[in-house]
Amino acid sequence: MSQADDPHEHDDAAAASGAGTKPGAVARADADAAGVALAVVGAGRMGGAVILGALRAGGLHAADLGVFHPDPERRAALATRFGVRPLDDAGVHRAERVLIAVKPQSFERVAPLIARRHAGYVSLMAGVTLATLAKRLGSARVVRAMPNLGARVGASATALAWTPETTEDDLRFARALFRGCGTVYDVPENLFDAFTGLSGSGPAFAALVAESLADGGVRVGFHRDVARDLARQVLLATARLLETTDPAAIKDEVASPGGTAIAGVRTLERHRLRFALIDAIEAASERAGELSGNGKGS
Ligand SMILES: NC(=O)c1ccc[n+]([C@@H]2O[C@H](COP(=O)([O-])OP(=O)(O)OC[C@H]3O[C@@H](n4cnc5c(N)ncnc54)[C@H](OP(=O)(O)O)[C@@H]3O)[C@@H](O)[C@H]2O)c1
What is the pTM of this model? Predict the structure, then answer.
């Protein structure tokens, strides 16, 4: 697995997408004729986060992006919400590339509506393999991505895998798209379930830790709001420290001899926090495998 961290990727995205066109009447007319650079099918939590990331990073302009929803009212509302273009069936078919961000269970229903030979697709659906995507979409130009909710604040770790038929432009485009949401890693597809278990699901586990720390704060006498603030600040400070320092070194620095932190660490060891977290990652990875049909239990 390697981190694809090219500082020129935003420029590459602009080139790949035909961006550089400023939003406005002329750009819109061009996009109408040629199709948007990216049609988003499923502008929910994650699809919406990717749209905002792309706009924030500046690789794509609002006029380059469109959202599709089968319900025209919902489509118009989503387009207004993100400030991008509403797309009907024909609009999706004219788009240069399509981002699929619906629930995996919806894919079988959605695929025939958006399938187009030779089109470029990016999917962020958990558990839907490149082979399945290529088969259902009728195009082998498919990039599979696994972001996490951090995309909403530009802090996602996103895994990318792709088919051999994916073009250099497709890949540059996908990398730039997810660089707008955080950091991009090239990951072999056989590690996608593991990546989903740790990174895709991880914000839920970290949030549980934050919630529990806040509960601890309430237990020792803080009001809920203050306890939540303090818990958030602890995680934020630790995340920043982790950018340059090994986790064990941070723990060792805080835990002075006979002090408060080592007393708490001992309690966490007694309650097997490490085991619980290791087991959670394994369970989440196995569940991802079940969803993609690779799992032992499916
Ligand atoms: N959430 C995460 O942390 C996370 C992390 C990694 C990957 N993912 C993946 O991201 C995908 C979406 O998850 P999510 O959490 O963002 O779900 P979500 O918030 O429910 O978003 C799904 C969106 O798809 C729309 N939709 C449903 N049917 C559609 C259709 N036929 N055409 C166009 N749009 C349609 C839904 O619109 P309505 O609301 O009108 O039904 C909704 O806005 C999933 O495949 C998931 O595996 C999620």
Answer: 0.86
